[in-house]
Write a structure and sequence with these properties.
The complex is a heterotrimer of chains A (677), B (77) and C (93). Chain A is α/β, with parallel strands linked by helices and 677 residues long. Chain A contains 25 helices and 10 strands. Chain A has a domain at 21-255: P-loop containing nucleotide triphosphate hydrolases (Rossmann fold, 3-Layer(aba) Sandwich). Classes of the chains: A alpha/beta (677), B alpha+beta (77), C alpha+beta (93).
Chain lengths: 677, 77, 93
């Protein structure tokens, strides 16, 4: 043969042979109970008292070393047990024959959470229990499970029970479990798991007799049937099947201490959920939330708004002047577009932050669960749970945080319904417009008119809620109320702060794009001239594209009595931000924004406008306008929040409902109203 | 005639044993997870507004609405 | 009917902020929720990052994505009482 022919490679075995319990004992004869003795493997997650148990059972008769062919260290020992004594210490057992001495080779396998073989330790355990021929496997597995972390330890039990192996579960009662007064019904657990369960304390050496008895009995029994598993390849489904099994088992077997003690929480709850005191306390809490968000956040919002329209805009203008761009459309874009947009976005930060904080505190302290109980009956008529009261109440301050507040609702459909209803709550920005119009048209009845709008708002929420529920979600709300009341608890500031920051960041991320884009878009529309006489950025409003759009839309409002283009343009701006309605309205008449509480020149213009557009029935038209403003789409920030919580499609659906409702109601109000006024 | 009484007529602050969930089959699993399963011992703590009850079982407090309270049956422990 | 692992994964995706809140909303015991989270971390379905609050660039900034349902349990197991952020692992391809 020449040297260029193929070289015969040594044959490598296709697989390494699976580990064998017997092989270990044959190779190193010390500290085994003999070739015919049963081999019991001690397995379990780390920190479950496994090694302590091993030591308790084997005493000093232990050999430690690597499992042949691996780097995994195991201990092997002899566990001598008789009928009378669970662990016999004598080296050469002289116990009487009728005490049935039994010597067991005990293998202390390394701690393994599962048989999923993520580590060499787990691989060995898995190989030993699963891969070899049956007579090479341990005769029985003792699985240690920590009572204070039952679910954690039972996963391995679930997996081992899928193999044809005898199993005994040794629940180690750690001090922690005892402190928590966790009472485990081992008989019940044994029934659920399908194998004997023994409570032990390896440190104090209690439960050893029971363990020995269980092991001896089980060794004599035939191999049990494995636990049936679903027929699937999906790893998560298999894992989840085990979790369902172990969760049911753990829940069934964990028993409350004999006499549950009444705590201070319970005494407090007697009042908090009582028929009269409960709702009163709830209203007080709601009022506090409402007040806090409006009075504390408002000055911060104003300060931020002024900061952006003042110093920041001024700084940008100065910079632009330096580069000779002052007075150009670039300045318009940067100052009236970007800076104004970002400024508006940031004015929401104090409001949202405060709202998230209050919500987190309410939920974490445990009060929210009680509030849900108190308001349950009232909200049930709308198919909403009691908790939905909170976002709706918040909505009367500002719709934007109210949308985020719907997160406290556990059910997705209920969340969605509430998200769609929040825009019908009359926020404080709408209030500014109502007050102005009230002063202009209703004189001393202004207060009544505004109050009427709030009543209309509540009515709309209820009616639309019923309508949506009856049509879209008929089966919702049919489940009876079951609320787990957590113990009252002082919220941890650090954790609460972290959660608030997390949510705020999320809101800013989503809302920023939409708000800034919309503000810039409005600026753009107002800057594009439609006649040749003007230049870009230097256009009176009515000649800009914006004005043309307003004029085009106006006729749609003729049946509602307010088809003046300036009026319509106010509504368009209101889409961006209701806070900007009055100022932009003034802009269309090229007048100054009125002082709060007085109508000024703007009032005169508006009076004339409504008089004309309504054909002599200004009051009805104004009412129609106010109703339209109440119900049509909320500001773009609310839409951004809605998109974040409910998705684009539902947000568009919501916009559709709102526009339809607003227009129909406005027309109805005007047509019916002008018969009287 | 089903034995025992419904929770609506059961006394407060008395040890009780749950003997049935009546027609509240859909809630049975949820109740069981919270500890209220057949054979469990519990106590009624308070009446809540709207005719519900707060139940103390297995160390947890659970608020139940009026309809559910009418369906669950218990007897004195 | 979903098992505990799916329920917990859904809660994490929905942004439920604490393990206690997950337990309340799913009806699972605290013990099972903790075990489920541990398992999901092991299985690589969620990634766990330790947060140190007050650190400007670490902390929440180290989280996989805020929009991905970041949650902040008070403790992960009994071992570390620190603040840990859990987030869904981005699956590649």
């Amino acid at each position: 043969m020449s040297e260029s022919t193929r070289v015969r490679l040594p044959l490598t075995p296709a697989t390494t042979p699976p580990p064998s319990a017997k092989a270990c004992c044959h190779e190193i004869p010390r500290h085994t109970a003999g070739a015919d003795a049963p081999v019991v493997a001690l397995v379990g997650a780390p920190n479950t008292g496994k090694s302590t148990l091993f030591n308790a059972l084997t005493g000093s008769r232990v050999t430690m070393g690597n499992w042949p062919g691996t780097t995994v260290e195991i201990s092997r020992g002899v566990w001598r047990t008789t009928l009378a004594v669970p662990t016999c210490d004598c080296d050469n057992c002289t116990c009487a024959h009728d005490e049935e001495p039994l010597a067991i080779t005990l293998l202390d396998l390394p701690g393994a959470y599962s048989l999923d073989a993520h580590s060499p330790d787990e691989q060995l355990t898995r190989g030993l229990l699963q891969d070899g021929p049956v007579d090479e496997r341990p005769g029985l597995c003792v699985i240690t499970v920590d009572a204070s972390r039952l679910a954690h330890g039972l996963y391995l039990v679930a997996q081992v029970r899928e193999l044809a192996t005898r199993v005994v579960v040794a629940v180690t009662m750690s001090d922690i479990a005892a402190q928590r007064e966790v009472t485990l019904d081992t008989a019940r657990l044994s029934q659920e798991l399908g194998c004997p369960v023994v409570a032990t304390d390896p440190r104090r050496r209690t439960g050893m007799v029971a363990l020995a008895t269980a092991v001896r009995t089980t060794l004599a029994d035939p191999v049990p049937d494995p636990r049936p598993t679903p027929f699937t390849d999906d790893a998560l489904m298999l894992d989840d099947d085990r979790f369902t099994w172990l969760s049911d088992a753990a829940d069934t077997a964990t028993v409350a201490p004999g006499h549950d003690r009444l705590t201070l929480s319970d005494k407090v709850d007697r009042w908090v959920t009582a028929p009269v005191a409960g709702p009163l306390l709830f209203l007080a809490v709601m009022w506090a939330v409402f007040q806090l968000t409006t009075t504390v956040a408002a000055p911060l919002q104003d300060a931020l708004a002024r900061f952006f329209s003042g110093p920041v805009s001024g700084a940008v203008t100065s910079l632009l002047t330096l580069v000779h761009l002052h007075g150009t459309w670039v300045e318009g874009l940067l100052v009236n577009g970007l800076v104004a947009g970002v400024g508006m976005l940031l004015t929401f930060v104090p409001l949202m932050g405060l709202m998230f904080l209050l919500l987190a505190l309410l939920e974490d302290s445990g009060y929210l669960a009680r509030a849900a109980v108190v308001t349950d009956r009232l909200m049930r008529t709308m198919g909403l749970p009691g908790r939905a009261f909170l976002p709706l109440v918040v909505g009367f301050g500002c719709n934007v945080p109210a949308i985020s507040a719907t997160r406290i609702l556990p059910d997705a459909r209920q969340r969605l319904l509430t998200v769609l209803l929040v825009p019908f709550t009359s926020c404080s920005a709408r209030l500014t417009v109502f007050v102005m119009l009230g002063t202009v048209f209703f004189g001393k009845n202004a207060g009544t008119a505004v109050f009427g709008m709030y009543v209309a708002s509540v009515a709309l929420v209820v009616l639309i809620g019923l309508l949506l529920r009856r049509t879209l979600w008929r089966t919702m709300g049919a489940e009876p109320l079951i609320i787990d009341l957590p113990a009252y608890h002082v919220p941890t500031l650090r954790l609460t702060g972290a959660v608030v920051w997390q949510r705020l960041r999320g809101f800013l991320k989503t809302a920023s794009g939409i708000i800034v884009a919309t503000v810039c878009a409005v600026w753009l529309l107002q800057s594009i001239p439609t006649t040749g006489a003007q230049s870009f950025g230097n256009v009176p409003v009515e000649d800009s594209v914006y004005g043309v759009v307003a004029r085009t839309i106006s006729p749609a409002f003729a049946p509602a009595g307010f088809d003046q283009w300036q009026t319509t343009s106010a509504l368009i701006v209101g889409f961006v931000a209701k806070e900007a309605v009055i100022s932009s309205w003034a802009q269309t008449y090229a007048t100054e924004q009125p002082q709060p509480g007085q109508a000024g020149l703007l009032g005169d213009h508006i009076r004339a406008a409504f008089e004309q557009s309504s054909g002599g029935h200004p009051l009805s038209a104004v009412l129609a306008f106010m109703v339209f403003l109440l119900a049509y789409t909320p500001c773009v920030a609310t839409l951004a929040a809605q998109r974040r919580e409910a998705g684009l499609r539902w947000t568009i659906f919501g916009v559709g409902i709102q526009l339809a409702t607003a227009w129909l109601l406005a027309v109805a109000v005007f047509q019916i109203g002008r018969l009287f006024w | 005639m089903t034995p025992g009484m419904d929770l609506a007529s059961a006394p407060l602050d008395t040890p009780l044993t749950l003997i049935g969930v009546g027609s509240a089959v859909t809630s049975r699993r949820r109740l069981a997870t919270l500890g209220l399963r057949e054979g469990a011992s519990f106590r009624l703590l308070t009446r809540t507004i709207g005719g519900g009850r707060i139940v103390l079982v297995g160390g947890s407090r659970i608020a139940l609405s009026k309809d559910l309270v009418r369906q669950l049956r218990a007897q004195a422990a | 009917m979903s098992g505990p692992l799916h329920l917990v994964l859904d809660e994490i995706t929905a942004g439920t902020p604490t393990l206690a809140a997950i337990a309340r909303r799913t009806g699972l015991s605290d013990d099972v929720v903790r075990a489920a989270v541990d398992h999901l971390v092991r299985a690589g379905r969620i990634t766990s990052t330790e947060l140190s609050l007050g650190c400007p660039t670490g902390g929440c900034g180290g989280c996989a994505s805020a929009g991905n349902g970041c949650i902040l349990p008070a403790a992960l197991g009994d071992r570390r009482p620190g603040l840990v952020s859990l987030s869904l692992t981005r699956r590649v391809a």
